[in-house]
Write a sequence for this structure.
């Protein structure tokens, strides 16, 4: 992730988006046409191409290395089992949450039903009261009928009221049960809070892993794309070279083809003639072949008929022969019967002889055929070799050597075949003997090397294939075409020319082959890459053992050999050991090749001649090496053994006799004599005396074993202080009796039984021998020997015996016996009584069993030590135990609290261990029975107390709307686990966990939560009882004060759903004021404990939100009137803290600087060494580098020495990276927002719990509004609102503009449309269906595209346009909605009205007069005075699309005095526009002035050229309209002014023709009308003045005259009528104009009612002379 973030920060340097790589790859797909063009271009400039390719290769390799480095950090993969476990936990948590929601819904429904039920009860109570009042009223009125009717109604109402009350109680009970279940569910949820956090963490890790895997896949794809680009460039470069080579080859091929064509043309005619000739010959041959085939078919038909006849004859002959054979067989049967022989045996022998002869004959035929075939093939090969010798004449020596090498094995094979045939007559004359192959037989094949064998096997396979093919190719009958075969040549003597031994090389090959055969032919077997090692064949039996053989007899054994190798193998007998050759014969037929798992048999025959053990082995050989089977031959022997060499009699009472039997077994096949006696060199008896004590008894009892003749009855009691088990005999063994010898003990000599009592004067012997002491034991038989133990003296005794044999090969067997004698007949099965762990004041019992070994009844007395008489007792205290019987007593142990003081030395106070003695006295014992029996009672005494801290719990003040929890600690002071439980708990208290039940381990402490919920305002005092499993009670006193606050919250716990960062979740609750009455008898009034009741009136509340929490409560302060409620909205907006984002930004900057510092260090190290070398280079290299500027040397480009300050800069970067602080990061910087986006991607989730206190203050209703009311505030009335706020990472984030969600369009001109792209990405692990909020349809913002489904890890662009229509600031929110969260985008923009100033003030540009086909230009300016750039376009109405529609309308002069709608006038005949403007469109930056040029270029004479120029902004708004005017003349002079006499539309005006232009100018004088109006006031008359202008057109065309002259004639007439004009004459320079002013004053006597008229002539001289008739008309008007 860190590497990816670093790449994102330096996008301009190294990051290439995935879609750009795809487009790049798509643009560079190989297409034939494009590649050809590129190839030609590259071929023209190959040197530059190579340089570019090298540079691109370096860039690509650098990018590939960077991508590979970034993809090295692989994420730790989460296992499938962990993922399944997380999913199961999530499912269980969701189920628990669903159950909780369901319980809440049910609770709300029950509350609604309960509320409705209470309303019905109130209604029925009111109805009951009203009916009661009506009854009273009617009774007073005396209306009996109404009273009875009302009584019925009253009873009905009361019945319904009772029913409703029952329903209310039922619903209340249901509500309590449901609330209890809801509380249990809440408790379970609290338990699983840790699991929920763990699940969220694991899900976050899994999401992070998915994101990292997706990014790694993108990096791999980028790497693949870069590699593909590199490969494509290589291929393209290679294609250029291939094309050049192809073109060169093509040119050469064309030249060669032309030469070949010329040659081919020459030989074509000759070839055609030859072809025709061959065709004619082939036709002749085909005809001859057809005739031959016809004859062959006829001969075939005849031969078929002849063969049929032959077959019939042969069948008849066979039948005759069969009849004769049957007759002959009958005769032979009769002859055999006559001789008295067996007919069936005779026939069987005859049949076998015939089969043998037939097989012999077939074998001879096959050998002949094979010999012929071998000879034929050898001859063919020799003929082939001769042909090769003729063809290869240059290298004769090599060819001869090769032919000799090839012919040698063939000649050897031929010799072997001939020798076999030569020996055949000798073999036939001698009887055939079959024997197994040996080493000598294998030498026959030694002549052929392994290479020859491979060639023979290969040839054999080829022959078989050819035979199979020829089986179907050969016809049934031979035809005529097979008669021309060549007969085989006879084998000459040249094949026998070489000796049998062969050449020197063949002898060396033969010697090497024989060595291999002697050492075993080893060929490795390899299967599936494993080489076989080990024995190739498995033998059954693995060892051939001839056991207990007798000389002169023959023994046989069959051995099965199984192939255990990896493949096909063979087995061959190599021989046996030298010691066994005279006695062992092996019959083994080699089976040939055996597959894996197949087996073969081998028979081994053994005939001993000497009576000795023999050992050896059978040696075999396989393909993988030699192996052997061990072979042993053993004679008859004696194998003697006893079942036990040590006899332990155990512990017995004095005077008893115990018998033990041992078994002597002979497992061999040879019998012998034995004798059981005491050894002479060892003392006969060893007596060990010791004093009789209870410790000695215990030691003997621990060692004693129970014999086969006695019954074991012992009990085992485990103790901590003992390390072994106590075993004792339960009864004495039986007396010694006579022993009868078994059938296998025939021939054993018996002696008289010795007396048990030794004579006086001799040493006492307690361990003696039985009756049988010597005898003979046969093969595979057993003998039983007896040893007798008679204890006389207390103590332990041992004896040794020895069994000797007559057979010198048999070793003596030594026996040892041991026994112990006791003087006490009574013993205890459990001398140590372990009561384990006991508690004080608890009764423990156990039984003690006593055993009597004696043969008389005994009187026992049991005593407890005086220190423990208060704590321990025995029942009964006196008892009798019968002979050889048992007696049990009951031990009772009740430890009291005074045990540590009473027990004294028997009790350890530190460990609590008790070891108490119990004495057993035998009353009336005689002689040495004087010591008592000691029994020890062991116990560990411990306390049963539970310690509860604290013993008193004070909950303090608790409102009825909240739950107060206090923690207590329970400690088990016992060393035993104890079960406990809190019982009798009141309904307003709850103990958790496990409802107050549990088990405490020894010395364990457990914390329990006591949960208190006040039901009403009062003081609570109670005791909680904790009981243990032994019925002990421990109490905890609790007290609290219940508070009923004046206000209540509808919800005291709000669980927000998992909310994404920068998203918002909202919950609604109500603050309720239900306090309407101070009557505490009828209602639960708000008060603290038993204090004063809160006043009725408006109650104020204030929520105090914790500082820095993402919680918002609206309203946080307010008041609620009695009986009303106030809605409060709680909002949860999780965000990342500013400090964490700044720390992440510092971390990113440090990594960036460190990553930049590493390559700088490497470059500095690399450049230090070359910089030193460059100083030593001669100046010639520098000059050569200057001469070749096209290619720069690597020293000058790749290894430039860095400046000195670069090292300092590198160190300064690292120093600044170390000094970066979070406070230096500005919240509006790009680094801050990039760090915020990175934190979003790495955010794994967070759970917060906030408790918001709500302070309550109440006030009484004041009658006087002027008086201020006092607020009754108490901290005990404070309500608490608990908020559970889980926050998760946002599923959708913004990745463009460093993750900013504020989209600012800035200042945009009105009417302009600006687009912005916002890139969003799905960082969750599931596809999201994305929706969007609706922007204002009348607003300037529009979302142009929408995204449907966004896959995990994918990104999508959003296009938003801003087109303001007003000059103001716009603000709007766009919500990107998904199923998990909402992403809010803040869109802002400023609309500005565009303002452009034009230099044309009156909106008209008059171009003046221009000669036809000439042009004139003028300029005007536009300045952008707004703060935004403006896009303008200049449009002319004459070029508008709607111009033709305007021309179809009625001309304006035909209308009723309305103005013209179009300003377009006369246009050029050529179709080109008269007016043109440049530039036509562009962008005006703020404050910039643009010059525009207008060109007027008419092509004919007209006075009404005009057009309309419009300046449009953004192709919508028209900023300025300019009227363009101009006039054109064919000549250089013009007259303007006066009133119009014609229309402005050119189509309706008089167009002069060519004939009219040739007329006299006098006849065609032009008219100019001047209308003058004189204004008359009361006393004076203002003269009227008008002007006409004479001008000269400035032109670049050459003409004779450059100035224009004018003359005004007929002036007297004008003056007579009151008109005056001046100047009368004048001259006008080109480009200038002069005015003639005409004024009129009414002359004397002029009738003001009528107008005055006069005419004058104006002559204008320029390039031509023109005359104008000026008509002056004057009129007097009043003011």
């Amino acid at each position: 992730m860190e590497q990816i973030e670093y790449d994102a920060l330096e996008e301009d340097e190294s990051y290439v988006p995935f879609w750009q790589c795809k487009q790049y790859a798509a643009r560079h797909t190989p297409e034939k046409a494009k590649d050809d063009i590129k190839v030609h271009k590259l071929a023209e400039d190959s040197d530059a191409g190579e340089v570019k390719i090298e540079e691109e290769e370096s860039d690509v390799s650098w990018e590939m290395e960077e991508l590979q480095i970034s993809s090295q950090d692989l994420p730790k993969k989460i296992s499938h089992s962990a993922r399944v476990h997380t999913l199961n936990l999530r499912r269980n948590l969701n189920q628990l949450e669903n159950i909780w929601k369901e319980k809440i819904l049910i609770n709300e429904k029950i509350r609604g039903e309960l509320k409705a039920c209470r309303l019905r009860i109130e209604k029925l109570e009111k109805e009951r009261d009203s009916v009661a009042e009506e009854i009273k009223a009617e009774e007073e009125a005396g209306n009996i009928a109404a009273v009875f009717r009302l009584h019925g109604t009253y009873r009905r109402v009361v019945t319904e009221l009772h029913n409703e009350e029952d329903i209310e109680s039922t619903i209340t009970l249901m509500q309590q049960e449901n609330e209890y279940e809801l509380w249990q569910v809440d408790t379970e949820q609290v338990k699983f809070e840790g699991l929920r956090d763990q699940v969220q963490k694991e899900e976050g890790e899994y999401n992070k892993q998915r994101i990292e895997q997706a990014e790694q896949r993108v990096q791999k794809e980028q790497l693949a794309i870069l590699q593909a680009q590199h490969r494509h460039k290589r291929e393209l470069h290679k294609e250029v070279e291939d094309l050049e080579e192809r073109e060169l080859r093509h040119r050469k091929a064309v030249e060669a083809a032309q030469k070949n064509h010329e040659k081919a043309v020459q030989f074509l005619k000759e070839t055609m003639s030859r072809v025709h000739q061959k065709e004619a010959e082939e036709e002749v041959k085909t005809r001859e072949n057809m005739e031959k085939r016809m004859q062959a078919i006829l001969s075939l038909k005849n031969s078929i008929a002849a063969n049929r006849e032959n077959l019939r004859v042969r069948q008849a002959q066979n039948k005759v022969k069969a009849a004769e054979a049957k007759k002959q067989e009958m005769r032979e049967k009769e002859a055999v019967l006559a001789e008295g022989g067996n007919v069936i045996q005779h026939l069987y022998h005859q049949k076998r002889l015939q089969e043998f002869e037939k097989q012999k004959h077939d074998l001879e035929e096959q050998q002949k055929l094979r010999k012929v075939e071998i000879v034929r093939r050898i001859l063919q090969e020799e003929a082939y070799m001769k042909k090769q010798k003729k063809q290869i004449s240059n290298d004769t020596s090599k060819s001869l050597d090769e032919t000799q090498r090839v012919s040698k094995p063939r000649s050897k094979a031929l010799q072997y075949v001939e020798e076999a045939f030569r020996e055949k007559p000798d073999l036939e004359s001698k009887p055939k003997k079959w024997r197994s192959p040996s080493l000598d037989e294998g030498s026959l094949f030694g002549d052929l090397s392994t290479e020859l064998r491979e060639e023979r096997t290969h040839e054999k396979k080829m022959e078989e294939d050819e035979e199979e093919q020829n089986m179907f190719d050969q016809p049934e009958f031979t035809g005529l075409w097979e008669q021309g075969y060549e007969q085989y040549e006879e084998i000459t003597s040249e094949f026998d020319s070489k000796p049998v031994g062969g050449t020197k090389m063949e002898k060396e090959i033969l010697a090497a082959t024989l060595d291999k055969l002697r050492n075993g032919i080893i060929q490795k077997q390899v299967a599936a890459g494993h080489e076989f090692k080990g024995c190739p064949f498995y033998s059954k039996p693995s060892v051939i053992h001839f056991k207990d053989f007798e000389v002169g007899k023959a023994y046989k054994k069959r051995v099965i050999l199984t192939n255990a190798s990896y493949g096909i193998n063979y087995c061959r007998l190599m021989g046996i050991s030298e010691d066994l050759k005279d006695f062992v014969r092996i019959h083994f037929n080699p089976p040939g090749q055996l597959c894996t798992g197949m087996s073969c048999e081998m028979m081994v025959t053994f005939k001993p001649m000497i009576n000795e053990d023999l050992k050896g082995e059978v040696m075999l050989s396989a393909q993988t090496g030699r192996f052997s089977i061990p072979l042993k031959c053993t004679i008859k022997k004696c194998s003697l053994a006893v079942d036990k060499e040590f006899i332990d009699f155990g512990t017995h009472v004095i005077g008893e006799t115990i018998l033990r039997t041992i078994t002597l077994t002979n497992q061999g096949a040879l019998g012998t004599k034995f004798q059981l006696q005491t050894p002479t060199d060892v003392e006969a008896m060893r007596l060990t005396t010791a004093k009789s004590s209870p410790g000695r008894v215990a030691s003997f009892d621990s060692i004693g074993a129970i014999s086969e003749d006695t019954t074991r009855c012992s009990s085992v009691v485990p103790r901590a202080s003992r390390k072994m088990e106590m075993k004792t005999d339960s009864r004495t063994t039986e007396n010694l009796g006579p022993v009868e010898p078994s059938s296998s003990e025939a021939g054993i000599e018996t002696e008289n039984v010795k007396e048990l009592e030794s004579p006086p004067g001799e040493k006492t012997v307690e361990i003696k021998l039985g009756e049988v002491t010597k005898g003979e034991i046969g093969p595979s038989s057993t003998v039983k020997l007896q040893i007798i133990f008679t204890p006389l003296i207390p103590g332990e005794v041992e004896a040794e015996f020895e069994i000797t044999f007559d057979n010198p090969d048999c070793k003596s067997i030594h026996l040892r016996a041991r026994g112990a004698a006791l003087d006490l007949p009574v013993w205890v099965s459990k001398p140590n009584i372990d009561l384990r762990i006991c508690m004080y004041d608890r009764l423990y019992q156990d039984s003690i069993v006593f055993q009597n070994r004696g043969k008389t009844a005994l009187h026992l007395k049991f005593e407890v030590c005086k220190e423990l008489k208060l704590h321990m007792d025995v029942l009964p205290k006196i008892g009798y135990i019968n002979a050889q019987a048992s007696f049990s007593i009951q031990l009772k142990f009740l430890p009291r609290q005074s045990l540590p003081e009473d027990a004294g030395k028997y009790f350890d106070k530190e460990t609590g261990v008790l070891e108490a003695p119990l004495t057993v006295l035998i009353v009336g014992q005689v002689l040495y029975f004087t010591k008592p029996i000691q029994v020890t009672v062991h116990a560990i005494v411990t306390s049963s107390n539970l310690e509860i801290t604290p013993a008193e719990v004070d909950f303090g003040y608790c409102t009825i709307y909240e739950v107060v929890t206090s923690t207590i600690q329970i400690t088990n002071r016992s060393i035993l686990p104890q079960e406990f439980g809190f019982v009798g708990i009141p309904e307003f208290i709850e103990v958790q966990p496990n409802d107050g039940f549990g088990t405490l381990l020894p010395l364990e402490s457990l914390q329990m939560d006591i949960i208190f919920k006040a039901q009403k305002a009062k003081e609570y005092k109670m005791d909680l009882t904790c009981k243990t499993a032994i019925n002990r009670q421990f109490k905890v006193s609790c007290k609290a004060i219940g508070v009923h606050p004046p206000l209540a919250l509808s919800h005291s716990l709000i669980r927000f759903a998992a909310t994404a960062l920068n998203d918002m979740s909202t919950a609604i609750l109500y603050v309720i004021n239900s306090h309407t009455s101070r009557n505490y008898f009828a209602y639960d009034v708000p008060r603290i404990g038993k204090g004063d009741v809160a006043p009725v009136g408006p109650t104020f509340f204030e929520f105090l939100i914790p500082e820095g929490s993402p919680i918002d409560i609206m309203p946080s302060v307010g008041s609620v009137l009695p009986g009303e409620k106030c809605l409060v909205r709680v909002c949860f907006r999780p965000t990342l803290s500013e400090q964490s984002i700044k720390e992440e930004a510092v971390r990113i900057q440090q990594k960036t600087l460190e990553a930049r510092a590493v390559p700088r260090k490497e470059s500095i190290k690399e450049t230090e060494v070359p910089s030193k070398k460059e100083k030593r280079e001669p100046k010639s290299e520098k000059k050569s580098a200057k001469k070749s500027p096209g290619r720069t040397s690597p020293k000058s480009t790749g290894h430039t020495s860095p400046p000195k300050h670069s090292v300092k800069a590198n160190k300064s970067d690292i120093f600044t990276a170390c000094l970066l602080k979070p406070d230096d990061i500005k919240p509006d910087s790009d680094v801050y927002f990039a760090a915020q986006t990175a934190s979003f991607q790495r955010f794994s989730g967070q759970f917060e719990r906030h408790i918001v206190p709500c302070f309550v203050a109440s006030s009484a209703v004041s009658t006087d509004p002027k008086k201020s009311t006092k607020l009754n505030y108490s901290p005990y009335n404070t309500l608490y609102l608990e908020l559970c706020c889980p926050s998760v990472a946002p599923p959708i984030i913004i990745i463009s503009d460093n993750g900013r969600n504020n989209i600012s369009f800035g200042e945009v001109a009105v009417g302009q449309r600006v687009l912005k792209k916002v890139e969003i990405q799905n960082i969750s692990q599931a596809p999201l269906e994305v929706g969007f909020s609706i922007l204002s349809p009348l607003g300037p913002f529009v979302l142009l595209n929408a995204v449907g489904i966004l896959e995990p890890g994918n990104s999508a662009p959003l296009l938003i346009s801003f087109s303001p229509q007003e000059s103001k600031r716009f603000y709007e929110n766009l919500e990107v909605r998904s199923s998990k969260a909402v992403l809010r985008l803040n869109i802002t923009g400023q609309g500005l009205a565009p303002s452009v100033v034009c230099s044309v003030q009156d909106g008209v540009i008059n171009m003046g007069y221009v000669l036809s086909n000439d042009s004139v230009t003028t300029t005007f300016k536009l300045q952008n005075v707004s703060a935004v750039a403006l896009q303008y376009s200049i449009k002319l109405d004459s070029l508008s699309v709607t111009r033709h529609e305007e021309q179809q309308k009625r001309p304006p002069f035909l209308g009723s005095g309305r103005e013209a709608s179009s300003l377009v006038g006369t246009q050029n005949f050529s179709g080109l526009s008269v007016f043109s403007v440049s530039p036509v469109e562009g962008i005006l930056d703020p404050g910039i002035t643009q010059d525009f040029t207008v060109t007027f270029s008419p092509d004919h004479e007209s006075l009404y050229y005009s057009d309309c120029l419009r300046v449009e902004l953004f192709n919508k708004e028209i900023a300025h309209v300019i009227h363009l005017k101009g006039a054109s003349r064919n000549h250089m002079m013009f007259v303007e002014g006066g009133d119009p006499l014609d229309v402005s539309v050119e189509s309706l005006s008089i167009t002069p023709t060519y004939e009219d232009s040739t007329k006299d100018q006098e006849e065609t004088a032009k008219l100019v009308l001047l209308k003058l109006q004189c204004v008359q006031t009361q006393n004076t008359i203002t003269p009227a003045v008008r002007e006409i202008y004479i001008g000269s057109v400035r032109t670049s065309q050459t003409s004779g005259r450059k100035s224009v002259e004018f003359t005004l004639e007929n002036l007297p007439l004008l003056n007579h009528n009151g008109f005056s004009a001046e100047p009368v004459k004048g001259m006008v320079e080109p480009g200038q104009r002069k005015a003639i002013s005409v004024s009129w004053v009414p002359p004397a006597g002029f009738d003001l009612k009528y107008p005055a008229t006069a005419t004058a002539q104006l002559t204008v001289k320029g390039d031509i002379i023109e005359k104008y008739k000026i008509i002056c008309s004057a009129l007097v008007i009043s003011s």
